[in-house]
């Protein structure tokens, strides 16, 4: 299916003397688009008032004015689609939920110009509805390169906005499986500690004073105890970069195999950190009830647990 351009026409019916901003008015009329996307359409000359094009998103409207919005089709992405196998947990016309393998980077970047999840999704879905005016998948949330598990990818702009709003409003329940070195001070717990850039290593994150970072909340529950490790079910209520890894290290129980925030020498024969995005509860676009999805624990992690369970106390 090819997505064609379209034009929407609205009349601002505010009372005489009452005004509202153009971008706010359009956000209410076209909720499938993000505010930044609408501002981009205005900036690019795709919006006119009373047949007069304008480029100022903050323009105030007067009652009776006619607003015309031209929505062009998404432009082709410059990324090259790649045919790579993906573990599809769920798929419909709006989104795809993937069990991402460890070692796969999500977003293209200067150091990762091929082999990313985005490249693979482009190869999987040749006709995307487009996100932000470009034919590309909409990555709704993040997973670190070496974290396996569930990640949601939107196929079109309305789905992307719908899903982003859920994550922003903390209406999504994310459940991770984490093996940590040591034992937390309590069987269950809640960590409330702001996260920001590490002052000594700007590429890393760390727990910082509240006024230096962003609110971060993580809850955990003990599933199984071993001699030197603990298996946890972890619920992050916020989505800060490296949040679980930073909070577990702050608790004194870093993720097993995490040589960045944890112990430099691995305590177990595992090639990456033991963190898996295990379960996800989310409301699909157009639905009114949450659905739960689960990603099977990958072999490297299940084998690690098997070895620990067989190890004599």
Poorly predicted regions: none
Q: With helices defined by DSSP (H or I, 4 residues minimum), what is the helix count?
A: 6
Strand content: 25-35%
How large is the radius of gyration? 23 Å
Characterize the main sheet. 10 strands, mixed
What is the overall silhouette?
Answer: elongated
What is the CATH architecture descriptor of the largest domain?
2-Layer Sandwich
Count of distinct structural domains: 3
CATH class (first level) name of the largest domain: Alpha Beta
Write down the secondary-structure element order.
Answer: EEHHEEEEEEHEEHEEEEEEHEEH
Which range best describes the helical content: under 10%, 10-25%, 25-40%, 40-55%, 55-70% or over 70%?
Answer: 10-25%
**CATH third-level topology of the largest domain:** Pseudouridine synthase
C-alpha end-to-end distance: 60 Å
Q: Find the CATH superfamily of the largest domain.
A: Pseudouridine synthase
Structural class: alpha+beta
Describe this structure in words.
With 313 residues, the protein is α+β, with helices and mostly antiparallel strands. It folds into three domains: 66 residues, Structural Genomics Hypothetical 15.5 Kd Protein In mrcA-pckA Intergenic Region, Chain A (Roll), CATH 3.10.290; 96 residues, Pseudouridine synthase (2-Layer Sandwich), CATH 3.30.2350.10; 144 residues, Pseudouridine synthase (2-Layer Sandwich), CATH 3.30.2350.10. The chain is 19% helix and 29% strand. The protein has six helices and 18 strands. The strands form four sheets. Strands 7, 8, 9, 10, 11, 12, 15, 16, 17 and 18 form a ten-stranded mixed β-sheet that branches. A hairpin with a 3-residue loop joins strand 15 and strand 16. Helix 1 crosses helix 2. The radius of gyration is 23 Å and the shape is elongated. It starts with 5 loop residues before the first strand and ends with a helix.
């Amino acid at each position: 299916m090819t997505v064609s351009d379209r034009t929407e026409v609205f009349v601002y019916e505010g009372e005489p003397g009452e005004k509202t901003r153009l971008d706010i008015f359009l956000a209410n009329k076209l909720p499938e688009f993000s505010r930044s996307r609408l501002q981009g359409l205005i900036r690019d000359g795709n919006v006119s008032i009373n047949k007069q094009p304008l480029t100022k998103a903050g323009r105030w409207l007067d009652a009776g004015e006619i607003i015309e919005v031209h929505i062009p089709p998404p432009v082709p992405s410059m990324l090259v689609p790649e045919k790579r196998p993906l573990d599809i947990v769920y798929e419909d016309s709006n989104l795809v939920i993937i069990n991402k393998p460890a070692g796969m980077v999500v977003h293209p970047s200067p150091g990762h110009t091929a082999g990313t999840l985005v490249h693979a999704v482009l190869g999987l879905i040749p006709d995307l509805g487009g996100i932000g005016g470009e034919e590309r998948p909409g990555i709704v949330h993040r997973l670190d390169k070496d974290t396996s598990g569930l990640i949601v990818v939107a196929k079109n702009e309305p789905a992307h906005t719908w899903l982003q709003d859920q994550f922003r409003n903390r209406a999504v329940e994310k459940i991770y499986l984490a093996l940590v070195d040591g034992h937390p001070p309590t069987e269950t717990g809640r960590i409330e500690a702001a996260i920001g850039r590490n002052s000594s290593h700007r590429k890393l994150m760390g727990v910082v004073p509240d006024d230096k970072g962003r609110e971060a909340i993580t809850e955990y529950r003990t599933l199984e105890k071993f001699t030197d490790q603990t298996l946890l079910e972890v619920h992050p209520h916020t989505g800060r970069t490296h949040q679980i890894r930073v909070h577990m290290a702050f608790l004194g129980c870093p993720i097993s195999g995490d040589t960045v925030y944890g112990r430099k020498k691995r305590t177990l024969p595992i090639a990456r950190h033991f963190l898996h995005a295990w379960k996800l509860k989310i409301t699909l676009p157009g639905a009114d009830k949450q659905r739960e999805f689960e990603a099977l624990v990958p072999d490297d992690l299940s084998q690690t647990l098997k070895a620990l369970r067989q190890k004599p106390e």
